Amino acid sequence: MKPLIELRNITKEYRGVPAIKDVSLSIYPGETLSLLGENGAGKSTLTKMMAGAVVPSAGSLLIDGKPMRFETPNEALRHGFAMVFQETSLVPSLTVAQNLYLGREPFFNRLRGLYISAQQFLQTLNFNVEPTKLVSQLGAAERQMVEIARALQHKARLIIFDEPTATLTPEEKHHFFGLVERLKKQGVAIVFISHALEEALAISDRITVLRDGEHVLTAPAAELTQDAVIKAMVGRDLSGELYSGIGAHRTPRPAGRKVLSIQNLSMGSMVKNTAFSLYEGQVTGMFGLVGSGRTETAKVIAGVVKRDFLHGGEVFLDGKPVRYRTPRPAVGDGIMYVTEDRKLEGFFETLSISENIFAGKLASAEPVPKVITYREVATVAEHWRKSLNVRAISGDARVIELSGGNQQKVVIAKSLVQKPRVIIFDEPTRGVDVGAIAEIHQLINQLADDGLVVWVISSNLPEILSLSDRILVTRQGRVVEEFRPDQATEEKIMYAAVH
Amino acid sequence: MRNNNVFSRLARGQLLSLTQEKIVFLLAVLLFAVFSFSLTGFASVDNLLGLLYNVSVLGVLGLAMALVVIGRGIDLSLIATMAISVAWSLTLIRDGVSIEAALLYGMLMALGIGIINGWLIAYAEIPALFCTLAMGTLVYGFGRIALIPVDVVYMPADPGWFGALGQGELFGIPAPVIVFVLLSVVATLVLRYTRFGRYTYYMGDNYQAARITGVPTRPMLVMQYGVTALIGFAAGLVTAASVDSMNTRIVNSTMIYDVILVVVLGGIGLSGGKGGVRNVIVGTLLIGILLNGMTIMNIEYTVQNFIKGAILLAALIFDSLINPRDEQTAQQGDI
Hints:
The structure holds two protein chains of two kinds.
Chain A: E1 5-14, E2 17-27, E3 32-36, H1 43-50, E4 58-63, E5 66-68, H2 73-78, E6 81-84, H3 96-100, H4 111-125, H5 140-153, E7 158-162, H6 170-185, E8 189-193, H7 197-203, E9 206-211, E10 214-220, H8 226-234, H9 246-249, E11 258-267, E12 271-279, E13 282-288, H10 294-301, E14 314-317, E15 320-322, H11 327-332, E16 335-338, H12 342-345, H13 353-362, H14 374-387, H15 404-416, E17 422-426, H16 434-449, E18 453-458, H17 461-467, E19 470-475, E20 478-483, H18 490-498
Parallel strand pairs in A: 3-8, 3-9, 6-7, 7-8, 13-18, 13-19, 16-17, 17-18
Antiparallel strand pairs in A: 1-2, 1-4, 4-5, 9-10, 11-12, 11-14, 14-15, 19-20
Chain B: H1 6-11, H2 20-38, H3 45-70, H4 78-94, H5 99-122, H6 128-147, E1 152-154, H7 161-167, E2 169-170, E3 173-174, H8 175-193, H9 195-205, H10 207-213, H11 217-243, E4 245-247, H12 255-266, H13 277-296, H14 301-322
Antiparallel strand pairs in B: 1-4, 2-3
């Protein structure tokens, strides 16, 4: 059989950093292919290239054996390549019918005509959705139906689903899989991006695993087991210098006094009834896939977002209940959150390095003179710039001009200057160069040795394994497992995170 | 090799962020030189003092606006706040309240409006642009309905020290100019050397980062808008004292745009976190020279408006070129 779409040696680079490296893959009509991999493995990038949302830097795309180049999603759609996104791309304030025909309305757009043809079309699909309803009034499953109907409306030959079942109830899932079966019979090819391994193995014909932007394996689902897939997902070269199994050899630091105790914490749909404790003098690592509520949990505790008003659970600091409605009182109590997105909420980009670091001191409980002189700012900043080894010409350089690693150090210094008792690192080495990663890891260890409560959130398994004295795994908004680092392996942690 | 030519640096906002101020200053000097040679009477001491006298109120309002703009906000109700609070004070004086008490009430009213603005922006999370736009209309309407029976309220016959604020002189320098200079000095010191000033820059640069760092962002917003309204009240006092009255109809004039013109032209980016008092002074000078020159040349008022509009638009385009914004940097309350 001829492949519907064939990727040949596709590479995609973002500013010289490859997100996809030399991947080749074929997809046949009427098959289901699941694309698996850790966060950042390149699943989204790869599928977006098929859907025209991302243009490859190198390599070629063949459709029905003919080379093709999609510049926009619209172009891909015209060839029958549609993507159903995780966050639905429907317009909530329009009706179902209007969404179905979005972007392809006739010049004289009569609503009545639109509703009639939408009704007819939905009936042929056996979808039970009222075309005159507003999308904002639909449930998750119904929205997905509309998305699928929209894809089919464009005579889609390939539909890419990004985490289609994450928001569905078991019943809705059942319905969804039935639909997928029917689509397959019509010869539509389906690509799933999923974190739910069991499900992926059960419903797909073939499985493709990506790791760090590279193709690891493609095999019929029937020949694979869950363990084999997990191994393929995480099996990176552990003899690499950076993470040379520090965690495995080192004896974990003993837990000190219990400082933070979190009980039944809930926040919206992201944090559900989670409970755990944090201790002085050790690094608590937290691993979870994207959407497992790690960042949200940390942000609730640091006062960045509010927990649910009713049944929000409780947070105890030194045995006393605390509820922070803004980050300021948390900072006052010594709980600092170092963000995962430093450009968005970490540093002040137009200000100098010195000013950034000093901002931390000024906003904390630390004494600051009434009249703040340049000398004062420079002295404080210089101390921290030296001790964290921020490489820049001078403290007057603007943060935006620094490398990712140095920016991260500035953001960390901004928190350290506030004399933290509890410091939360959210993805501390994301977008950081290799040299700086080692320095930041050393710093994190040093802080734990100094007796601080250190909490590291990361999707990088080797990082979690090498840093942590205790590993917590989150799934669907709560902590589900705890490991000792000498007993944990990447496979075990990943297994806990996806189950 | 990295792109380091002028245009990519321009796009990255590195080349000109420091020099927009200088460019405007040079433009002001150039204009000054041209007018000095071509217009008789322009370079005389009297005319120059008159020029300064005319723009000092604009300069004071520019300082008020600069404060909120640096904090990534804007206050479109500034003129309404100024006109109504001062007109109310004058009405009270006319009704027999002592000058001091009347001015105190007016000041409290201005402060109250500012605090409500800040509260709505900080706690109700209404974008500053819409909040203050609505507030300006509201304040003007309320003032005219309930507080001030006439369009133009005149100064009392014997205003004492209050009158000196507009018509007095010190070593030959008109009082409004002195007020502008004094407020500039105070604003510089506050912005540079105090916690309040620094917090304002942090919030303007990155509101979310400031919040996470522990800056009390919401009380700060309330304070910023409160202080802005107070400076606006001061500008109103000077205006009333110099022209012997307060005309509430200036709320409907283009004055608020002149103030924004001064701030943006001087190089205080609307995206916040940048600039300072120097930028206000430079912007005020350029506008002052321009307006004065155009008046001497007897250019029609409508043409003057056209020229001002063109300059404001050019300044805004320039601002967005050197401080580009995208979805990432756009924030709640952003304009």
